[in-house]
Structure formats: structure tokens, C-alpha cells
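FORM 7B: Structural annotation worksheet

SECTION A. Query
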Amino acid sequence: QVQLVESGGGLVQAGGSLRLSCAASGSIFSINAMGWYRQAPGKQRELVATINGGRTNYADSVKGRFTISRDNAKNTVYLQMNSLKPEDTAVYYCNCNARTSVWRVADYWGQGTQVTVSS
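SECTION B. Predicted structure
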């Protein structure tokens, strides 16, 4: 199994910054993509950003403001969030696509961390 532990959420004023971290641990053979998703009250969970090797992908709503990065040696993914807006308020979830055996590749999720942006 793979465990994901997120940190870095909190309350910030509009225009401010936060940095989220997510560390993966457990029986990991290798990690493919890692990413961040978010879910606002009453809305579906949506992709924020993913990173796979050197390739990154961002939701249009966060391009130019958020940056995803990864430390492969630490199995950790980061999300630097700048110029935050009230509409960025959501629970942010870390996702990891990992191989845990020769036969098993699966997606794993963190418990979520709250990000609240006040206007």
C-alpha cells in the first residue's frame, strides 16, 4: 500500500501564496505521475496540476499562478500557489500513480488539505 501525507494548507488573503507538499511512502516500486486535485463545496473534484517525468499539466484556471514540482528522491510533490483568489478555496488532494508490485499499478489519494482564500 501507499500512503500520501499532505501539508501546507491554511488560510490566506487574496493575492497571497501557499505551498503544499505531499510525501508518498509505503511499498513503492516506482511512481509514475503525481498531481494535485481540488474539490470545492458543492462541486466535483477537478484536476489542478500533474507532473510525470519532466512533463507538467495545469488546469487553465491556475496556469501562470501555480507551479508543480517533484523531488523524486523523496517521493514528494509540491504545489506552489501564488496570486491566490477566493475561487481557489477548496480541499486539495494529492494523487499518486504508483507501481507496488510487478503486477500492480494503482492510483492513491491523500486525505486532503484545506485551502481557504479570503477576499
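SECTION C. Observations
The CA atoms of residues 36 and 94 lie 5 Å apart. The two ends are 40 Å apart (CA to CA).

SECTION D. Sign-off
Analyst initials: ____
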